Here is the input.
Amino acid sequence: MTKIAFLGLGAMGQRMAARLLSAGHDLTVWNRSPDVAAALVSHGAKLAIDPADAVKDAEIVFSMVRDDAASSDVWLSPESGALNALPEGAIAVECSTVSHGHIKQLSDAFDAAGRKLVDAPLAGSRPQAEQGQLIFLVGGETSNVEALGPLFSIMGSAVHHVGGTGAGSIVKLMVNGLFGVQLAVAAELLGFAKASGIDVAGASEAIGATPVCSPAVKLAIGAMQAGGFAPMFPIDLVEKDFGLLAQDAETLGTSLPLSAATRSVYAKAKEQGFAGDNITGVAQLYL
Here is the structure.
């Protein structure tokens, strides 16, 4: 049994924490809105009053929050941040989708405090989190990553150790960028087919049978036509992640013109009231 703290109980965090609890680990949880933790507490988790309280006895600490600002507050707040209370030898794991620049700042703070940090963002959504089928994209020292292996295996089906601390954040943004670009162009091409007057379903079936159509796009095209927009990866977060790509690209001195153009599509979808819809809801701009 490992003493684990889990910080952030949003749609993904709740499901990840539930799997750790079900596996028999000693779990302490914290969330900005404590009511969200009720189900976990009813099954044996302990509820902390703030991140510092949550981690004071922990061996492993996972964070799963919305963005750079939330992550910074969770770890680095002078009053309640987890870093100040993190025991020596504990491993902190940032699973949130945040900027590479932010992870570098966290890493510097952890190094200065003599504490261990791994960045382990993930690929997958709510169904994968519930089923333990997430894919972890991990940056950190090999010994720390290996120590986390048994816990990753409870929540996920694969772990890719892609480099030192910060590498996970880069690969995660690459994954989300590739996914977002594909679905944005798929949506506009469905609109193109509709405008031409051809059978959109037939055209989609034909494209899906070709090697140029990825499995993800094939599934998304079907959802777009069926109006399947229940939020798993909401457009609001898609646009946020493209913003992180732009932020990191500027810092690194490189250019991402296609990503920038794609971000504007999702921004338009937000403006038209689709922010809470799944990424497939971008099709509503065209269909």
User: Anything to note?
Assistant: The first strand starts at residue 3 and ends at 7. The mean pLDDT is 97. The first helix runs from residue 11 to 22.
